[in-house]
Amino acid sequence: MSAPAHPHPQHLTLANGLRVSLRHAPRLKRCAAALKVAAGSHDVPLAWPGLAHFLEHLLFLGTQRFPTGEGLMAFVQRHGGQVNASTRERTTDFFFELPVPTFADGLDRLADMLTHPRLALDDQLREREVLHAEFVAWSQDAKAQQQVAVFEGLAADHPLRGFHAGNRDTLPVERETFQQALREFHAHFYQSGQMTLSLAGPQSLVELEALAQRFSEQLTSGPWHPQAVPPALMQGQAYSCQPGASPHWHHVIACEASREALDFLCTWLNAPAPGGLLAELKTRGLATAVQASAPYHFAGQALLDIVITRSTQGEPATQIQALLHDWLSFFAHSDWTPLREEFALLNARQPQVQDALALARNDSEDLSEQGATALKAMLDSLHLPPSRHPWQLPPNNPFLRPPIKEERAGLIRGQTSAHRGLRTFAQDRSRGRREVAAPTFSQALADSSGEGALYLRWQFECAAPALESTMQAVRESAHQAGVELSFETAGNEWLLKIIGLHEPMPAILEALAQRLNQPQEAPLVPTPMMAIRELLKALPACCAASHFAPGEQPAAWSTARWHGLGLGFPAACEAALKSAAARLPGQPTSLEHTHQDLSGQRVWHEVKTDSTEAALLLFCPTPSQALADEAAWRLLGHILQGPFYQRLRVELQVGYAVFSGIRQINGQTGLLFGVQSPSVPLEGIVAHLQTFLTQLPALVRSRANAGNLALAQQFSPQVLSMTQAAEWLWHAHLAGHPSDYLARLQALIQSCGVDELLLAAQQLNDAQGGWRCVANGSHTGDGWKPAG
């Protein structure tokens, strides 16, 4: 197993006041930076709501040294990394992840955009329209509006009650007073004393410190400016509400507990184990989910929001509140010693499996004695009556501890190796049992990283069952132990992905098999989401070869067939997984994966969404499964990604959710384009897409051979994380490609020339592999065939 991350980051304060946190993790293939500026939406002058969020957007629009096409976002995308930013109440966060060889160049771009933004007026006018589009979407988002309604119980003068997203009315960029406020805000807060930089990667601590020092030297030096302390959160200490027609009941508590103390409380409050709050609410038919979190914490003030999803809305929430208070009273007077030990194990496990970006942003801490004392005081201050219900504390997570070693294989208890070869009655009885076919295990990934991936795919005779609710408890326990479970339903197929540490995985698979063999729970109530995300969730089912009517009775396990693929496991773990897989429901067999051949057709799928904004996905499969086609289309997607975003998002202002790139869906490779717009209808979005695609030949000629090496390097074992490699190899397996798929694809991308790219552009425009449009409205214009 590879060396884990150092258990504690190294903290430094450099000469110019920049605070630095460094994490050395030899197992990582990439490096990440997370920069926190101690300035957020609540630090903005009252006259200009949204100014902090607006500035965050403007910083990405290029500098004199690094114009838009060479700025941080374009650079990270070109090298297959991740990049984003977020404006919170009292902080603004910028974070990115890159392969190690390009990481220093990414840091240079981050430092330059923070220090030398252009702030050009024409950029501001365009970006204000983007923020206004986001504001329109935010105002229609059910979850966002619920949060606004919840905060209405706070004190009227607290900034959490205010509007901070920004829109056309609050950002008068044409006025000099606004421009002065924008420049002053940037000069006051965007300097070294107000920043904290976190780095995580495989480099040594000495190398990471050198990178941080180089970054700091490019910043404007300045002192720490304390942020103003806000007024009290509310007059009382707690209140309850249920916004509008939402099934979610909120109990909000204002307190002074530390962040790690609230994380500790929320961990056990959310636990689904028998004897806990959620289990009791389910037993009584009162609720289906409990989700406690601390959405706000600053200057000693904290807000605890306990959200309970009610089973029915007709009955008053009196019983729910009484049970919640009773559980809090029980917890306040419990012995936390075993829970604190478990909490420490949880915090220690996550850095062992987190990718570079998550590790750089990880600031979790164990519950200290001081934190425990403060949490006890906070719970006592609620003046709750003594608990009357026989609650139980959650048991230890069994996946967090090494499995109990079993007797040596082939020996019955009491036997020694001298008895090997002697048949026992137990062995005789097993002779007639059916031999169970196990998952296939591939050696395409090394087994030395301590992590592996197992893909299990079931095929049913009719619609696949919805199993997320049944898996929820195992999913949470597995996540705590460093293993991620994800589920995907597409037509009559159900896919389960198990990715993470080797050690707990066999026990997790055993628990999953036990759950799947039990009666299934009712499906979870879907969480409202923005339209483009709803379309992305529906896309795999739209691409499936078989479709079933909504509401059709799900199939039974008895007629299901399944197969699996394991990657990155040593022999001992393979054997344990095969043993656990023998208990999975259904018939293990080999399955052929078929794709619907569109061959020149343009098919339109209409998917209903909560949002009324126009949202559309266009998925264009490659004309064949040949690796040469995939390589050319990947390079084409690599070249057009930046120009597509620039044209539709920046220049035309078509929408705020604009993206493109290669996707693999059910083993099928294709180019995916996505747009959500508050102002342009679906027919307009389609027209913009088609216009852009017709310009691809000219784009190819202007950028030929510009991205071969950068893209090919993304498939190198030196930069691929286990999760990324496993995902690509799974889709390669579905497509029937050989186990050396990644090496072959890398070579083909490097050798791909202009002629191959022009052919790919022509194939794309001619829809030789078909076009599949998934949108939240009906098709318009000729040439589109409604999905049958």
UniProtKB/TrEMBL annotation:
Positions of the Peptidase M16 C-terminal domain: 180-324
Sorted UniProt keywords: Hydrolase, Metal-binding
What molecular functions are annotated in GO for this chain? hydrolase activity
Is Hydrolase tagged as a keyword?
A: yes
Keyword Transit peptide, does the record have it? Answer: no
- Domain (Coenzyme PQQ synthesis protein F C-terminal lobe): residue spans on this chain: 451-565
Q: Which residues form the Coenzyme PQQ synthesis protein F-like C-terminal lobe domain?
A: 635-730
Question: Into which EC class is this enzyme placed?
Answer: hydrolase
Sorted alphabetically, which InterPro entries does this protein's record hold? Pept_M16_N, Pept_M16_Zn_BS, Peptidase_M16, Peptidase_M16_C, PQQ_synth_PqqF, PqqF-like_C_4, PqqF_C_3
Under the heading Pfam families, the entry gives: Peptidase_M16, Peptidase_M16_C, PqqF-like_C_4, PqqF_C_3
Q: Which EC numbers characterise this protein's activity in its record?
A: 3.4.24.-
Instruction: Name all Peptidase M16 N-terminal domain ranges.
Output: 19-154
Family according to the record = Belongs to the peptidase M16 family.
NCBIfam families membership:
PQQ_syn_pqqF (TIGR02110)
Please give the name of this protein. Answer: Pyrroloquinoline quinone biosynthesis protein PqqF
Organism per entry: Pseudomonas asgharzadehiana
